[in-house]
Amino acid sequence: MNWKKIMTENTLNNDPKVLIALDFPDSISALEFVAQLNPNECRLKVGKELFAVAGPEFVKQLIRQQFDVFLDLKYHDIPNTVAKAVQAAARMGVWMVNVHASGGSKMMEAAKQALAEFEQPPLLIAVTVLTSMQREDLAEIGLDVEPQEHVLRLAKLTKQSGLDGVVCSAQETAMLRTELGPDFCLVTPGIRPAGADVNDQKRIMTPADAIKSGSSYLVIGRPITQAADPVAALKAINASI
Ligand SMILES: O=C(O)c1cc(=O)[nH]c(=O)n1[C@@H]1O[C@H](COP(=O)(O)O)[C@@H](O)[C@H]1O
Q1: Which residues of this protein are catalytic (predicted)?
Q2: Which atom of ligand 1 is nearest to the CA of 98?
Q3: CATH number for the domain that contains residue 124
């Protein structure tokens, strides 16, 4: 735990649950947005779009500003490549990094092992079934199963591979809590406050229901970043959970 966070007055929460998806096209607009935020009230997620334009220096800048950063590059490659990629992420000092569970146990074990040399390794989690997918999307890629069945299969494989948790939809968290226990980290995107635009998400839940179901952290992008008043939107979500 970062002592500065604990010492800061007006601390809402020492373990902010909301991970804001910084899906911005450039570092200038992202930094302008971040300037309104307090690291005691949220963590930040940097994904493929922003990382491709802003890179490691931008991530380090957020960390210098006391934010915990989830580097969401969803690695999926041969074990050696993924192992080296998670090490590069760990050297940046990120709080959390992810891979795709469908890369299999050999890939996930190699990633876990690669972090063993770090004194404070990032949390390593694996994406199960993307929250934008439903049964028909799985059928298209040859998987004749309900999303929750495939999520459970991949989450069990992730736990057996020694990782810290998974990315799943909040619709699956109650099931995963029962099956995988209280300590497994469940990170849930596809979060939509009541009445918000669903956009391209399919398996969704409200922030309060997601936390009640057992989500550890909520990934939220557009309902905050595109709100007329993003700080008010974040505060309302934090109040609701
Ligand atoms: O790994 C992720 O963060 C992720 C996994 C998933 O299954 N679904 C999903 O939406 N995400 C990410 O979560 C964020 C959701 O953003 P909004 O839909 O704008 O709230 C995006 O940055 C996605 O890349």
Answers
A1: 72, 74, 77
A2: 1
A3: 3.20.20.70
